[in-house]
Amino acid sequence: MTKFVGYVGTYTKKDSKGVYQFTLDTDNKELQDVKLAAELGNPTYVTVSDDHKKLYAVTKEGENGGVTAFSIQEGTGELTKLNTQTAAGSPPCHVSVDHENNTVVTANYHTTNIVSYLTKEDGSLNPAAAIVEHAGTGPHERQEKPHMHYAGFTPDEKYVIAIDLGSDRVITYAANQGDLTQVQVFNTAPGSGPRHITFHPNQKYAYVMTELSSEVLVLHYDEKDGSFTEHQAIKTIPDGFNETNDGSAIHISSDGQFVYAGNRGHNSIASYKVDQDTGQLTFVEWTSTEGNWPRDFVLDPTEEFLIATNQKSNTMTLFERDKETGKLSLVQADVHVPEPVCVKVMNSQS
What is the reported pTM? Predict the structure, then answer.
């Protein structure tokens, strides 16, 4: 029997109390045992270290926002708080950690900054090593100022990529022991509102999800200087869909064959086949997430399953994934989690 531990980051505006834990039973094809793992204010995004020993969650404490470090107990997945680093202002909306668990970076939608933290030997956080403020606007009504929605490392970890929904920019920073130095800026189409990025395993291509224009941008990535050039933009919703849609998460299979993009409003996941020679995408299908406002989703370690979180319906949905076609098949719907946003799954439990 193979079971995987997962975590859900949530809003705590209504019924949620913090970070939730669950189990994916791959033999029975079932999500089980949803329970509160850590009481925390608005931990909307979480990330797990590569060695599965630490979890970092964005945090709200009173009028302050920041990030909290946890240790993960082997076997049970139980979380133990290590420490928190906060500053005045709203909490971040995204957090990432590098492969060696040395540096944590956050992006803040409200305060316009990205922040880096160096970790201590036990995985706890030192005070902020670098704080980078941003300026700029865009033509959309939601682009009145910078809205940093993502901060994470390139595959070689030479750079940190920051994505600004508010001014339509993908910004490359040289990363060095917590220091962040801007080296490149890629401008997306005005009003597109870029949100998240994922890299092809060959490190030549990257895929950006736009929130406002509901597109996936196919970019060529130059690892020598951290620059991007656009080669394709493909819609994530049907041409005839005229209701509100906000693009959400984007992820790629580890073999680089399929890209998946989330739609809040159309309430679907769009699937695409990747051309390995060009990186360009061909649409495969839309799959309903069986809930309202799919904020995030994740492939499990076997990549035979995909788990989606529906924020406004307070549910998770489990899909089985065909590795040959990339298509998703509904397995389990309406798994209750309060105010779910981010979802992560880690290594085998048993």
Answer: 0.98
